[in-house]
Amino acid sequence: RYEDFITNPVKTFGAVVHFLGDDGNPARLEKAIAYSGFDVLAGQEQAHGYEAHTPGATTAFFSTGKAGAWREVLTAAQAAQIETDHGAIMRRLGYAVG
Fold it and tell me: pLDDT, tens digit, for every residue of 44-95?
């Protein structure tokens, strides 16, 4: 979960790396986390753009980096549609749905 990456990036990213079969070398984990931090990614987007961003979009892809920021951005209808489409996995991951 994104919230877990924010609150404990070494543990969370380390678990992902371990799941993928890597040894999770602490120095490499720290370096990867430092290079992929929100401020770094937002700065790179500002300087060079973001290739996967929707063409013609007028807002930044890396907007706030805050967990729960969707509450300020999505309409109630959009949030409801996401819950309808993805509610089962959201519950499995511990999110409150409905």
Answer: 888 888 877 777 777 888 888 888 888 998 999 999 999 999 999 999 999 9
| Torsion-angle region of 59 (φ positive above 0: left; ψ -120 to 50: alpha; else: beta) | beta
Rg (Cα) of the chain, in Å, rounded? 16
d(CA 27, CA 31): 6
CA separation for the pair 10, 98 (Å, rounded): 31
Which tokens sit at 81?
Answer: 């549609």
Under 8 Å between Cβ of 74 and 82: yes
Backbone angles phi, psi at 58, to 5 degrees: -105, 0
72 within 8 A of 65, measured Cβ to Cβ: no
Domain ranges of the chain: 68-98
